[in-house]
């Protein structure tokens, strides 16, 4: 076994990862060998359990280790091993979920160009505070559990909001949820059974992909293009796998930033009708879109489409208020599922969100937010191109740019190096259907102007 040096400038986590990688690469640890448990290694080397957890997580994500439930950690066989020190190809295990939770969503890192949320100063904090003061001044009975569908005035407001987006529905067709994550989870649990083939964007919305894997779904990728979808491949995969559900994000998609054209939306609905597919449309970035792009829901009027969105991205992630709209029969099932899993959502936070949305400054906030993102898009696009990056598309709106650099074969390797410099990147394998190593990175334009980030990326140009 290797020795650790607590006095070294190299972090202990990095020392542990490098030590085990060297042993595997040299053959000192062979495929199938059982590793010391986390507590055993921590005790033997006088380091924190959390340090060892972080190191083992990285080794799993890099393809060197694999975990087996109730058995511990083992060296992964060379044939299925992930990226080596030279950046070779391989497959990531499902334990990349650990990478997601410990690195990708680690809010402790100072710079966050790979994250999926906006900086606090970009959000509607003042409106939320005014709503909170108004709510406190009211003689409101907040006892009980609230309505299963959610706070009625907010559902009525959502109905009117969707009417402005050309979706005609009643307030009873709106279900308020704890963010879009709960809405997606409810839709998945209602529509997906273990072993089902489920069509998803490729690359796609990371949290959704992990959720569907937990449900035992067989993920089938629908390749994204700058205009929306590779329609020929989409139909071929539908014919081959016969999925009953398609989870997709047509507008300002995460991670690519692309928006599907009207022609592509029409074709998706034609395929859904032809092959009897329910479409779950994740439209959480609709408020960030300065254009008048249609949605699948507006074209379909909720016949086959389940529409999901959220206020968390524009008011505050902490209030966790999202919503789902569907045809009446399906919505009743989703209401029951919501009650089974958590009774009702929080009427208090729904009232807070409602107060912010009817605030006279809300429209100005949204306008300013769109302008700041458009400026961030332009600035970061130019900088990345100067640094030698290739852009998937230039959306000119929304939070994300999807880019790769010719010197980077495995973005997970780069993400680990960045984390050691207090920078959070969004490596491409997190958004992949099969979790394969990827050269692509997701950049959040609201965070990526940090000079520390640009200096780190400048190092790629020098290689």
CATH superfamily of the largest domain: Type I PLP-dependent aspartate aminotransferase-like (Major domain)
CATH architectural group of the largest domain: 3-Layer(aba) Sandwich
Shape, per Cα inertia axes = globular
- Rg (CA only): 23 Å
What is the third-level CATH name, the topology of the largest domain? Aspartate Aminotransferase, domain 2
The CATH class label of the largest domain is: Alpha Beta
Helix content: 40-55%
Order of helices and strands: HHHEEHHHEHEHEEHEHEHEEHHHEEHEEH
Q: Work out the helix count.
A: 16
Alpha-beta content class: alpha/beta
The domain count comes to 3
Proportion in β-strands: 5-15%
Low-confidence stretches: 79-96
Largest beta sheet: strand ordering: 3-10-9-8-7-4-5-6
Tally of strands:
14
Major sheet size, sense and barrel closure: 8 strands, mixed
Q: Compute the separation of the termini in Å.
A: 33 Å
List the helices and strands and how they pair.
Blueprint: H1 12-26, H2 38-45, H3 49-61, E1 65-68, E2 72-75, H4 96-104, H5 125-137, H6 152-164, E3 174-177, H7 179-191, E4 197-202, H8 206-214, E5 218-225, E6 228-229, H9 231-241, E7 245-248, H10 262-275, E8 278-282, H11 296-300, E9 305-310, E10 322-325, H12 328-342, H13 347-357, H14 362-386, E11 390-391, E12 400-404, H15 411-420, E13 426-427, E14 440-444, H16 451-462
Parallel strand pairs: 4-5, 4-7, 7-8, 8-9
Antiparallel strand pairs: 1-2, 3-10, 5-6, 9-10, 11-12, 12-14, 13-14
Helix pairs in contact: 1-3, 2-3, 3-4, 5-13, 7-8, 7-12, 9-10
């Amino acid at each position: 076994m290797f020795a650790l040096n607590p006095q070294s400038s190299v972090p202990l986590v990095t020392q542990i990862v490098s030590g085990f990688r060297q042993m595997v690469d040299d053959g000192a640890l062979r495929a199938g060998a059982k590793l010391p448990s986390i507590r055993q290694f921590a005790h033997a080397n006088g380091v924190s359990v959390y340090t060892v957890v972080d190191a083992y997580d990285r080794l799993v994500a890099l393809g060197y280790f694999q975990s087996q439930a109730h058995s511990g950690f083992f060296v992964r066989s060379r044939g299925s091993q992930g990226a080596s020190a030279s950046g070779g190809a391989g497959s990531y295990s499902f334990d990349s979920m650990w990478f997601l939770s410990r690195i990708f969503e680690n809010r402790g890192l100072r710079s966050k160009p790979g994250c999926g949320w906006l900086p606090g100063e970009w959000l509607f904090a003042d409106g939320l505070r005014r709503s909170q003061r108004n709510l406190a001044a009211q003689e409101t009975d907040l006892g009980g559990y609230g309505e299963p569908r959610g706070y009625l005035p907010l559902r009525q407001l959502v109905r009117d909001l969707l009417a402005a987006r050309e979706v005609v529905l009643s307030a009873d067709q709106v279900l308020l949820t704890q963010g879009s994550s709960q809405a997606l989870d409810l839709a998945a649990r209602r529509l997906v059974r273990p072993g089902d083939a489920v069509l998803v964007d490729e690359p796609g919305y990371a949290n959704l992909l992990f959720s569907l894997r937990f449900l035992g779904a067989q993920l089938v990728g629908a390749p994204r293009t700058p205009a929306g979808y590779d329609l020929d491949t989409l139909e071929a995969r539908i014919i081959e796998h016969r999925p009953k559900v398609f989870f997709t994000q047509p507008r300002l998609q995460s991670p690519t930033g692309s928006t599907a054209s009207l022609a592509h939306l029409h074709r998706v609905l034609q395929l859904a009708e032809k092959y009897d597919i329910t479409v779950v449309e994740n439209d959480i970035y609709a408020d960030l879109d300065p254009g008048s792009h249609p949605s699948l829901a507006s074209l379909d009027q909720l016949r086959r489409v389940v529409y999901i969105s959220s206020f968390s991205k524009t008011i505050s992630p902490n209030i966790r208020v999202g919503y789902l709209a569907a045809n009446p029969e399906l919505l009743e099932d989703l209401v029951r599922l919501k009650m089974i899993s958590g009774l009702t959502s929080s009427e208090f936070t729904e009232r807070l969100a409602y107060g912010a949305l009817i605030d006279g400054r809300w429209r100005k906030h949204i306008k300013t937010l769109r302008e700041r993102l458009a400026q961030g898009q332009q600035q970061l696009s130019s900088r990345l191109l100067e640094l030698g990056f290739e852009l998937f598309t230039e959306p000119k709106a929304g939070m994300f740019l999807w880019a790769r650099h010719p010197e980077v074969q495995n973005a997970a390797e780069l993400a680990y190096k960045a984390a050691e410099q207090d920078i959070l990147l969004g490596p491409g394998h997190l958004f992949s259907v099969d979790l394969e190593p990827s050269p692509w990175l997701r950049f959040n334009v609201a965070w990526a102007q940090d000079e520390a980030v640009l200096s780190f990326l400048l190092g790629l140009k020098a290689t």
